[in-house]
Amino acid sequence: MGGAPIAIAQVPWQVNLNIRNTSLCSASIIGTQWLVTAAHCVAGAAPSEISAYVGVTNLGERSNQNRVFVSSVVINPGWNANTFTGDMALLQLRDPLTFSPTVQPISLPITQDSGVWPAAGTAAQISGWGSTSYGGAASDVLLAATVSVLGGPSDTACGSYGGSFRNTESICAGVPQAGIDTCQGDSGGPLVVTTDTGSVLAGVTSVGNECALPNFPGIYARVTSFLPWINQYVPPPTSTPNEPVNLIATSQSRERVSLTWDAPNYDGGLVISNFVVSLVGETGELTPVCTSPASPCVVTNQKAGSVLAIVVQAVNELGAGTRSAAVGAVVVNGVRTPPAKVTHRLVAKWAGVKTRSGVKPRVRIAPASRGICTLTKSRVKLVQSGLCVMRVTGAKSQKGSAYLLGR
What is the pLDDT of residue 214? Predict the structure, then answer.
């Protein structure tokens, strides 16, 4: 309740569950063959009675093309239908998922301090296809909203729930003024906290007193409390990612270098949150110059004529992984296809050399570039592919260099 439409690409871990064609729930992708959901959604259901759909924003998009098949249901041994304790379950899929921009796992809180995380006041996102009013119909479109964690792991109170709230395995989350909450049909869905390394699954939607009532926030199964049990089935991550591969550096006009790469063959068991592009110094030190959640990344603010050695690292919740093999690139002012020509005045502008009206700047081709480009009366002509280095003299004997790449 109180949410707004959101595209599945913004929450690609979200899975729609249809149980026995009568109950609507959600789950979250936590591995290539594993989903986590609420025990009360799937307890007593056979795998064949659970239809799971990935990569969908609208319920009308569900089809055999985005359905994944459940092969086993693992209910937490502490599940109690009377008290809603132990309200967590794992669904094993028959086939590994193929990840894409709309189908991605979410990180588990393996590096978070379970004694303090998530702290009271932490913003968290809820999402699902549940009812927008208590007892109302399900939403046809995926909705999301932001709530606050209303108590840390050591806080025993949650609104007016009294002793029925168990802080050791539950998170209390909502908004003080009420009106925003999960509701029927949202069960099993994610409570997500954004950290420095990306989105982390903090809770699984469990239970509440109706929906969005004052003094009755939503209650979510606390993922940190269930990690030892989850890791019995879903192996915990063990490392930072392997190195990205197939790195290609392409010099562009205006002193830019574009980098593309392929993701590493192993992510360390955690979602890759970012890729960091760095320059390699003379002693091997790395200077980060560009960060992107995916290829490509464009390096800027480098001096024309500089020869760069560039690497990329993938980052997961454990940190930056192995650096890729380095690639070289030269920073240039312009890129043209031979036999293109550029005027002397443009070359002077590239070189940062001032010119006087009616007086042409003096342009010379560096000896190493004489097979690449030639001079005409008022232009520099590219003869073949390669780097053309030009020395420029302008007004008041001001001097500079310009770099033109032919390809």
Answer: 93
SS3 349: helix
Query: In Å, what is the CA distance from 64 to each residue of 129, 167, 251, 316, 326?
Result: 19, 40, 44, 32, 43
pLDDT for 268 equals 84
CB within 8 Å of 35: residues ≥ 6 apart: 15, 27, 28, 29, 52, 90, 91, 93
Residues 6+ apart with CB under 8 A from 134: 1, 183, 184, 210, 211, 212
| pLDDT of 111 | 86
Catalytic residue of the set 28, 107, 148, 187: 187
Residue of 26, 28, 40, 181 marked active site: 40
CA nearest to 256, candidates 289, 217, 308, 302: 302
Domains of the chain, earliest start first:
4-230 (2.40.10.120), 245-330 (2.60.40.10), 334-406 (2.60.40)
Positions in the chain short of pLDDT 70: 358
Distances (CA, A) of 261 to 197, 248, 310, 332: 20, 6, 12, 21
What is the structure's pLDDT at 364? 94
Closest CA to 213 of 179, 246, 190: 179
40 — alpha (psi -120 to 50), left (phi > 0) or beta?
A: alpha
pTM as predicted: 0.69
d(C-alpha 204, C-alpha 26), whole Å: 9
28 is catalytic: no
Q: What are phi and psi of 121, to 5 degrees?
A: 95, -10
The helix/strand/coil state of 360 is coil
Grouping H, G, I as helix, E, B as strand and the rest as coil, residue 202 is strand
Cα–Cα distance, 120 to 101 (Å, whole number): 32
Q: Show Cβ contacts of residue 235 under 8 Å, excluding neighbours closer than 6 positions.
A: 269
**Is 87 among the catalytic positions?**
yes
Write down the pLDDT at residue 331: 94
The answer to whether 53 and 16 have CB atoms below 8 angstroms apart is yes
147 vs 174: CA distance, rounded Å: 5
Out of 28, 87, 225, 278, pick the active-site residue. 87
In sequence order, the 6+-apart residues with CB closer than 8 A to the CB of 199 are 13, 106, 107, 192, 193, 271
**278 in active site:** no
pLDDT of residue 355: 81
